[in-house]
Amino acid sequence: MHSTFNVVIWVVCVLAVLIAIAVLIASRKTWEDFGKGQFVMDRDSAGHSQQDSGGAAAERDSEIRQMLAARNERRARRGEPPIDIEQELARLTTATPAIDPALREEIRQLVVARNHRRQAPARRRGRDRARDRWTERVVGTLQETCRIHAATSLRS
Fold first, then answer.
1. Any idea of the CA torsion for 118, 121, 125, 127, to the nearest 10 degrees?
2. Are 71 and 83 in contact (CB under 8 A)?
3. What one-character DSSP code corresponds to residue 35?
4. What region does 35 belong to: left with phi over 0, alpha with psi -120 to 50, or beta?
5. DSSP readout, 113-133?
6. Has this prediction a pTM greater than 0.70?
7. Better pLDDT: 141 or 127
């Protein structure tokens, strides 16, 4: 009885492995199509236009106007003067906002300083490595000199 149970367990395990291999081979096409379907949004559909088209820009401007109108309502409730929606829309949608040259120079200086701080440890590491290599070379030379001296002193 005991040996029959072992045989049955082994047969079931072997059959399970064979069935699993067969299912894996049969489902290869399924795994190739995994993640591809009509609900995946990794590509633009043919029905949508580009982001910079006139319709998209008009829709964007309409939504910005709505948000600016809501901001004006909040400002009015707080007792602040309202802002001109069209002027604010023009300011927000300009392609390149005007940046003060002094601000641009300050930003450049900050970037240069950050890059210098970032590169300084690498330069130190390089100098440390060169110093370590030089130290090891000198120590190796001294050890070799000591071995030669010890060998010659043993002969005499």
1. 100
2. yes
3. T
4. left
5. HHHHHHHHHHHHHHHHHHHHH
6. no
7. 141
